[in-house]
Amino acid sequence: MTNDFSRKYAVIDLEATGSGALASIIQVGIVIIKDQEIVDSYQTDINPHEPLSDHIKKLTGITDHQLSQAPDFSQVAKTIYELIEDCVFVAHNVKFDANLLAESLFFEGYELLTPRVDTVELAQVFYPSLEKYSLGHLSEQLQLELSDAHTAIADAKATAKLFIKLLQKIENLPRETLEAVLCYSGSLLFETEMIIREALSKSKPYNPQKHINLNGILLKKEKPALKPRQMSTDFAINTALLSLDERASQKAFVQFVEEGLDQSEPSFIQAQAGIGKTYGYLLPLLAHNKQTQVVVSVPTKILQDQIVANEVTAISEQFHLDCHSIKGPGNYIKLDLFQESLNQKDDNRLINRYKMQLLVWLFETSTGDLDEIKQKQRFAAYFDHIKHDGVLESTSIFYDYDFWRKSYEKAKTCRLLITNHAYFLHRVQDDKAFAKNKVLVFDEAQKLVLQLEQLSRQHIDLMALLRDLQQSINKPQSLLEKRLLEGIVFELSQLASDYYQKGIRPNEGSWTRLKEHVKELPDGDFTELKRLFQHQDDDYWISSEQQDEKRVTYLNVSRKSVTNLKTFLPETLKLYFVSATLHISPQVSLADLLGFDRFAYSEIDKQSHPNQLLFIDKEMPLVSDSTDQAYAQEIAERLLRLSKQPAPVLVLFTSKKQMLMVSDQLDSWQVSHLTQEKNGTPYSIKKRFDRGEQSMLLGLGAFWEGVDFVHADRMIAVITRLPFDNPEDVFVKKLSSHLLSQGKNPFNDYFLPMAILKLKQAIGRTMRRDNQKSAIILLDRRVITKSYGQVILDSLTNDFTVYQQNFEDSLEKINDFLT
After folding, report:
1. 538 and 394, same structural domain?
2. CA dihedral for 671, 672, 677, 683, sign (positive or negative)
3. Cβ of 665: how many Cβ atoms within 10 Å?
4. Where is this motif: DEAH box (predicted)?
5. Binding residues
6. Which residues are annotated as a binding site for ATP?
7. Which domain holds residue 367?
C-alpha cells in the first residue's frame, strides 16, 4: 500500500439491512478520486439472504427481488479490496461505513488498514454556519448534484463531490487559520485531520489587505463603503429597479407612509399581512430622508434576521446604502473570552470542534453574530462562556475589531438600522440619544405593549438568593444584622413554601414585611435584592420554569402601572406604528395603550380571501370536558388523518405542554413531523419545513404572527385553541386594572377583540401569495358553544368562507379544494 494518501481517495457509501452491529451490506458504491478528479467508480448490489424491513425498502427503493439476483459479498470482496486497499477511506459518517466494510472484508480474509476520513466532521468545521450536515442538506446548500438519494453509488458520488469541494476550500484557507485549527484537530474522528495537515503544506499566508492576524485569529477587515446610488422619490421606479411586482394595496400603504412625513404627530397604519409592508415603508422613507437615520424595530430576532437577509440586503446591494443590524451584546462573540478558551485544554471533542469551527467562521464573518452558528445549541454552555457581556477594556488587543463595539458604533451613523423591540427599548432606557431626532418605524407594533411590560420587570433566582442569605447568616456579624437576615430568609422561605405546596399567591402583608426587612440591610449588601424592592408601588410574585434538568424558581417584580411609550421615548423626527392589529375595538386602540392621545390613523382596505377556507370542527370535545391526555389524543388523531393529505400542515398551539403531548403521540405512531424546541429553534425548523424535509410542523407563539409561509402553493393550518390571554397572568391582571380604571370592559373591549385579531393573524400565515391556497381547521368549539362565540364567528365570516361541520366532511372538502 502506497504512503502517498494525498493523491488517491476511495469515497464509499454502503446501504445495509439496518444501522446496528448485526447489519449486513446490501449495496456498495465506490468513487475513486485522484488529484481532485473522479477517475473511477464501482457499484454492486449484495444479497444479504434475509428479507428487508419496510423502512429500508422505503428509504432505499431496493427490493427483496432485486437483491435475490445479486452476488454474495464473498463473490465481490476481492474486487472491492483491490480497488480501495491503497486509498484513503472517505465516507459521510465514516465510522459506520468503514467498520461495516472492514468487518465484512475481514471475514473473507482481507484486512483493511486504510486511513479513514469523515466528511461530516470536515463539513462541520469548514462550513460552520450551516444548520444541518446531512448529505442531502449539504448537497442542496453547496449546489452539488444528488439524484437517487440513499442508493449507494448516488450517495458516494455526492460525497465525492462534497469531498472535492472541501479539499478546495481547505486549501484556499490561509496558512495561519489552518495552523490554528490543527491545534485542536486531534479531536476529529480517525485520521480526518490528515486532510488539514496536507492542505497546510499547500496553503499560502493570509492577505493583509483583507484580513488582520490577532494572536493567531484572522478577522476580516471592513470593505470601503461604496458610493450611494440615487434613489427615486417615485416608489414604482425603486421597485422596478429591485425587480418587484406592483401591488395595489402596497401602493396605498406607501401613500400613507409618504403623507405621514408631512405630519408631526405619530402615524398609525393598519395593514393586513402579505401586502409588502416592509418595502412599503423602507423605500419611501429612505428616498425622502436622505440625511436622517431610519430605525426599524421588529418584535423578534428571527424577523430581524429575515428582513436583513431579504429586503435590507436587496436595497443595500441595489442602492449601496449603509445598512446595519444590531442586537444585544450577548448575541456577539467576545474575542477576549474566545482567546481564553483557545488557551484552555479541553478533552471534550465537541468543544474542540467548536473551536475549529469558530476559527474558520471568524475568518469569514462580517458580523460576529453567534446566531450565524446554527448548531450552537448542542453545547450552549460553551457559547454562554464566549458570548459578549457588553464590557470591553480599552487595552484589549481586540478592541478595534470587537464585533459588539463596532456594531454599537456603526448603529450611530448608518442610514438604515434594523433592530428588535427588546434591544430598542433597553437601549433607549439607557441612552435616549439612540432614538432622538430620528425616523422610527415599529413593525408588528402591537408587540410593544408586552415588551414594555418585560422592560419593567426584574427577577432573581430565589433558591440561589436563599443560599447566599444563609451563608451570610453563618458569617460573624452583629446580632441585629443576623436577626435581619434571618427575618428575610423566613419570609422568603414561607413565600416559596406557599407557592409550591399551596399554589397560592402571597398577600400584600407578606411583601410589606419583606420590604421593611430589605430596606434595613446595610449599604453594599445584597444590592440586587435591594434593587427589586426600591419602589413602593410594585407588583411581586413567584414563578418557576424548567431549565434543562432542573426547575428554577424566581422572585419577580414589576411596576403596577402600564408603561407609557410616549413619555418613554425622546423627541423624534417621526414615528410610525405598523401592524394588522392597531384598532383593537371601538373603545381601545394600540395608540391608547401606548399613551398617545394625538395621532394620525390610516387603514388599508382589507382584501377578500377566496383562496382560503375555514373549517370549525363541530365534533372536537371541549378542553373543560377532557383530560389533558384525552384532548391531546383527539388532536393527534386528526393530525394523523391530515398527514395523508398532499399538502404541508402547520399546527398552532397555545400550550407547550399540549404540543409536546401531541408530538409524543405522533412519534408513537411514526408520523413524521417537526416540533418547536423538540426539534430545534423556530428559525431552524421553519427552514426545514419550507424545504420540504417534513410535511408537518407543530409550533407555539413564534409561528402565530410575523412568520410567513410562502413556499408551498397549498397548505393546511390547524389552530388547536383560541388564542386568549391567560387571565391569571400578572400582566393580564395589570392591563385589566388599567382598562377598568378608564371605565372599559377588559374582556369585551380588549381581550376578546385581541383574540380575534390574533386568530386572523394566524390564519394569515398561510396566505402570502395571490396564487396560494390554504385550508384552516379550528379545533376549538367554543366559537359555537360560548356566548362570545357569535362575536368571533361574525368577525370571521366577514373575511372568510366558514364551514361548521364534522371532521370527516371537512377532510373531503379540503381535498377537493386543494387539488
Report:
1. no
2. negative
3. 18
4. 443-446
5. 271-278
6. 271-278
7. 328-413
